Amino acid sequence: MKVSFDFTVDDLVDGAERAVARSGVARGWRWQRLVVSCTLTAIVAYIAVPGSDGTKLFSAILAAILCAAILPFSSGGGRRHRLQQYFREQFGGDGPFTCEVELTPQALVTVQRGARNERQWSMIRAIQVTDNSVDFITQGAGSVIVRNRAFKSREEHDAFIDLARKYAPHAR
Known about the structure:
The chain is of the alpha+beta class. The protein folds into 2 domains: 2-8 and 92-167, PH-domain like, CATH 2.30.29; 18-86, no CATH class. The protein is built from 5 helices and 7 strands; from the N terminus they run E-H-H-H-H-E-E-E-E-E-E-H. It has a 4-stranded antiparallel beta sheet with strand order 1-2-3-4. Helix 1 (9-22) crosses helix 4 (76-91) and helix 2 (24-48) runs antiparallel to helix 3 (53-74). The protein is elongated, with a radius of gyration of 22 Å. It starts with a strand and ends in a 5-residue tail after the last helix.
């Protein structure tokens, strides 16, 4: 079964964000950044605020809490913008670009921008159905995201998923 769809730089950024969100290592980096930032903010507040030790401690705790509340929202836009710049550089523009995805008994086959890639079914760790895509999570090299716009009907979408799960029964 073969499907085709167009994708843009924003789709690539979304895919990269999904991959990072699935990564335990990346989550660890985010926690580490949060702890270090909040600790440094608390130290600066403790040193900068005049008054008793109790006042300084209260200020340090309040500063750390504010840092923890603000930091997760402050970096997302910058990260997305950097990813957009990266993918524009790699793909030569914003798109649209065409991606073909074929399910064969041997492999999940993708063709985009003239490059053909085959991922053996044994390398597919999970098949996740989301609101806007079918995601094939691979061992090692990321994922393949098939956008729902690749399917002409709900029946074709469901048949695609059923066939993929048949070829990769060990995928969760």
